[in-house]
Design brief:
- The chain is about 20% helix and about 25% strand.
- Strand 14 and strand 15 form a beta hairpin.
- Helix 6 packs parallel to helix 7.
- It is globular.
- The chain starts with a helix and ends with a strand.
Length: about 900
């Protein structure tokens, strides 16, 4: 009886305590912890800081924990795709390629790999997926998206979130919202905002995403990270989001942003070892630094960039906007705001509660936080990466069954281009996983190994590794060679060529300078290649900074130099490759090359190569000769970000010249956006491989050899000319990133991507959803029935009418209703469902595609809610937005 009485007393006591704890999140454990926290401890959970240098992993951000209460800190790491820290990690297929799979299963598997890598590298919050819309090819981040369609983006993004979070890693979907342009100020009407730009975030919320990153831009005149209309009214009230909102790095401009719905300010404090710090912070008490001085050019400026800068083949791009335009912040900090009542502690408690709620939900309060760096699941991840890159491949054209290549033809096939010898794994470095060069087998070698034919020929055309500048070209003080200082007494080096493979790499953390003269034999454009690893490196010519490695120490993007930092490809022997074109006159030129530690503690490798005008001309002529003497020529072409809607350098000329001497020319693309294909009618086949990740050489070879059939589908419309896109239409300058009067207006409204082409009756080169196969498929027996959730279940029979097992992707498109309410917009047709199915040769399969109720609805600006349109609509099923095979009228 005594035990029962004691239990009753304890229960009553706990209930009394519980009644005294304010309800903040509704989670009793979280609210109890919040009630015990001091104001400073709550601020710790909403303001980024710097991790202990002994533990820091080169990740993007860090949130301090509260050891007193058993609350661990959080590490935030960049993507997409993959994971970027100071430890090299596997390169995955580009996000556009993941979208091209049209497969939720593939997206989830890629998310699982990301989450698994995060855990192995000690990361808690993965800054992905990127679900903004690819509406403008001039948008510098468009290559990070899942394409132009809101439904496809939503489905792929939600599936990837499921994969990431299955590994006890928080996903942070980005960027909310309207960050679909390089413009600093975007304007979007309410219906389009909900149906196109918010839709992928709504799907992320339904998928249980832990956090959301708000964006740099202003939306409808208000900074996105301080926009109550979007952060509170839409995100919290309409979508029911319970997680936390983090600012993009430097996108907070006032302490009052917390009142609008911002929960966490990032990055919060200066990066380690950074002397100058210009990003203001507000959720703390440190003085706001003065605005940085206007950028100025001088002879000591180095041409460095975390994205690698421009390469010789590329035009120099215009400067990109690094943040939004609120450059004059309100200088009030949190202590003053609390004192004045501008911010109250309840807002801080609410924000801290949202962060703590997710920390608890992911088990980090129960020991599931893992900051130790452990072994990566490389072999297991590689299987997913190879499978994804294979499933992502889109066969754009295949005249007269030019692909796959036949075994009998391999003795007379030549592969042309640098990305035939090496795999273009990640396209461009920046915020993605850097890849593991030791795993990267190029298509050429992979084809030899798969086919057993070691005689497949190759011509580089454009040699990205070049040749070491010969000793005879260097001198100093009238003597041969360059003088090296910085490591003991000065010494003379005949040339700069210190590598591990050569057995003469310099000791770790060597800080040295080479000075002297470079003798140039004659006038011309020389391509200078500064190649390094285990160090930072810089080069000056004639007293001016020419180039430098782009990795930043103590920053937020990896911390050490990686082989894929500064070029589309590493060197053949795995060094980072900084490549610049410079016009030089014959004679002597002052040269200076220097190194500085990169914190890797690895041997310092450094080499100075060049690619002379004569060698470039000879390599190009050799490629054309090889094509002329081959039965089949396979030309590999690539692009990063510049030029927009084009291939860099002379690659179009290369394809034209190869096709002129070889009627059986095939082109393999490594891009992440559409590009102009002026030679499309002159080649037999075109295979889009995107940026396929570390294992892409194997998947490219397997597809070319017919080991499997391409079945990817375009997640973007491929236009004939850039002016055909809505954002590039010269009749509508307000849509471009420059905008009109400082505003970029999404005046195409709901008609983004293929919807614009349909509305304007513009014929694309390749339609959204397009993709050919090595077999053929027939569609029949279309039926649509109302589903339990109010949507539709669409049934269609797909028959493989060819001789090869393959995947097919039937797509459901919904037409506009026969009765359109006043003031409401509808596209001509919109993707409403899809499935990817494997069908054996000669077999049939009934495919069921679910169309959710939301896809039948529109956002009513007048009623401020989702409504179902009255009237009849046409439902079509087909192989692309312009290849609808079957239709049915639904009411």
């Amino acid at each position: 009886m005594r035990r029962v009485w004691t239990a009753l007393v304890l229960t009553a006591s706990m209930a009394a305590v519980a009644q005294s704890i304010p309800v903040v999140t509704g989670d009793a454990r979280v609210d109890e912890l919040l009630s015990r926290m001091t104001l400073e401890e709550k601020l710790t959970l909403i303001h980024g800081t710097q991790e202990d240098p002994k533990l820091y992993q080169g990740q993007a951000g860090y949130l301090g924990g509260i050891p007193r209460l058993g609350i661990p800190g959080l590490r935030f790491a960049d993507g997409p795709p993959g994971v970027l820290t100071r430890h090299p990690s596997q390169a995955e297929t580009a996000t556009m390629g993941v979208a091209a799979t049209f497969s939720r299963q593939a997206a989830k598997a890629n998310g699982l790999v990301i989450g698994r890598e995060d855990r192995a590298l000690g990361i808690d919050v993965s800054l992905q997926p990127f679900v903004n819309i690819d509406r403008d090819l001039e948008y510098g981040r468009g290559y990070n998206t899942f394409g132009e369609d809101p439904f496809l983006t939503a489905e792929i993004g939600a599936a990837e979130i499921g994969g990431i979070q299955s590994q006890h890693v928080m996903a942070q979907v980005k960027h909310f919202v309207g960050y679909d342009s390089d413009a600093t100020s975007t304007w979007i009407d309410d219906q389009s905002l909900h149906e196109v730009y918010v839709a992928p975030f709504e799907a992320a919320v339904r998928a249980g995403v832990a956090s959301i990153m708000c964006s740099y831009n202003r939306l409808n005149g208000i900074s996105s990270c301080g926009n109550e209309a979007t952060l509170t009214r839409i995100l919290r009230n309409e979508l029911g989001f319970k997680g936390f909102v983090t600012s993009d790095w430097g996108a907070t401009h006032a302490v009052t942003f917390i009142n609008a719905g911002l929960d966490m300010e990032m990055p919060g404090e200066p990066p380690l070892d950074t002397k100058s710090w210009s990003l203001p912070t507000f959720f703390d008490s440190r003085p706001i630094p003065p605005s940085p001085p206007a950028a100025k050019s001088n002879a000591d400026d180095m041409d460095t960039d975390m994205y690698g800068g421009h390469m010789p083949e590329e035009p120099k791009p215009e400067p990109a906007n690094g943040s939004d335009a609120d450059s004059t912040p309100n200088r009030m900090k949190m202590p003053e705001a609390l004192k004045k009542g501008t911010v109250n502690e309840a807002a801080i408690t609410r924000a801290a509660g949202r962060v703590l709620y997710e920390i608890a939900r992911f088990g980090y309060l129960d020991g599931l936080s893992m900051h130790e760096v452990t072994a990566q699941s490389i072999a297991e991840n590689a299987k997913v990466i190879e499978k994804t890159s294979e499933e992502a491949a889109v066969l754009l054209k295949n005249e007269n069954h030019a692909l796959p290549l036949k075994a009998a033809d391999l003795d007379s096939v030549v592969l042309i281009g640098p990305t035939a010898r090496q795999i273009d794994a990640i396209g461009i470095n920046g915020e993605c996983a850097v890849g593991l060069p030791e795993r990267q087998v190029g298509p050429l070698e992979a084809m030899k190994k798969i086919s057993g034919n070691v005689g497949i020929r190759f011509a580089v055309d454009d040699d990205m590794t070049g040749a070491t500048i010969p000793a005879g070209a260097f001198s100093h003080d009238g003597a041969p060679g360059l003088e090296r200082t910085g490591s003991g007494d000065p010494v003379t080096d005949a040339q700069i060529d210190f590598t591990t493979s050569g057995g003469n790499a310099l000791p770790p953390n060597s800080t040295v300078v080479w000075k002297g003269k470079l003798s140039v034999p004659h006038d011309g454009e020389y391509w200078i290649y500064l190649q390094a690893l285990g160090t930072n490196a810089r080069i000056k010519l004639d007293g001016k900074g020419l180039a430098g490695t782009g990795a930043a120490q103590g920053g937020d993007h990896g911390d050490i130099l990686q082989a894929t930092q500064d070029n589309a490809l590493s060197t053949i022997d795995g060094l980072d490759d900084v490549r610049r074109a410079v016009q030089l006159n014959a004679g002597l030129h002052d040269i200076e090359v220097s190194t500085s530690p990169d914190s890797s503690n690895s041997p310092v490798q450094i080499r100075l190569n060049w690619y002379t005008p004569e060698r470039r001309k000879a390599d190009h002529e050799a490629a054309i000769a090889a094509a002329k003497n081959a039965k089949i020529a396979v030309v590999f072409v690539w692009t990063r970000l510049q030029p927009v809607f084009g291939l860099p350098g002379d690659q179009n000329k290369l394809v034209e010249e190869v096709a002129a001497v070889n009627p059986n020319t095939i082109v393999v693309l490594n891009t992440s956006q559409p590009v102009a294909l002026p030679w499309i009618d002159k080649v037999k086949a075109v295979l889009e491989m995107w940026w396929p990740g570390d294992e892409g050489g194997w998947s490219t070879a397997n597809l070319l050899l017919g080991g499997s059939s391409p079945a990817g589908r375009l997640p973007v419309t491929w236009a004939r000319r850039i002016e055909d896109y809505a954002a590039a239409d010269p009749r509508h300058p307000e849509r471009s990133k420059k905008g009109v009067d400082g505003k970029t207006v999404y005046s195409e409204a709901v008609n983004v991507g293929y919807r614009w082409f349909d509305k304007q009756r513009i014929e694309p080169l390749f339609a959204f959803g397009h993709g050919l196969s090595y077999t053929t498929f027939a569609y029949s027996a279309l039926r649509a029935k109302k589903a339990a959730d109010g949507g539709l279940d669409v049934h269609v029979t797909v028959r493989n009418t060819g001789a090869m097992d393959a995947d097919e992707v039937p797509q459901v498109y919904l037409g506009a209703p026969s009765v359109i309410p006043a003031g409401v917009q509808f596209p001509v047709r919109a993707l409403a469902g899809f499935e990817r199915e494997t069908i054996a040769a000669g077999a049939s399969k009934e495919v069921t595609i679910h169309v959710a109720l939301r896809q039948l609805q529109y956002w009513s600006t007048r009623e401020q809610k989702w409504m179902t349109a009255p009237g009849k609509r046409t439902l079509g099923v087909g192989a692309s937005s312009r290849d609808v095979r079957l239709e049915q009228t639904i009411d």
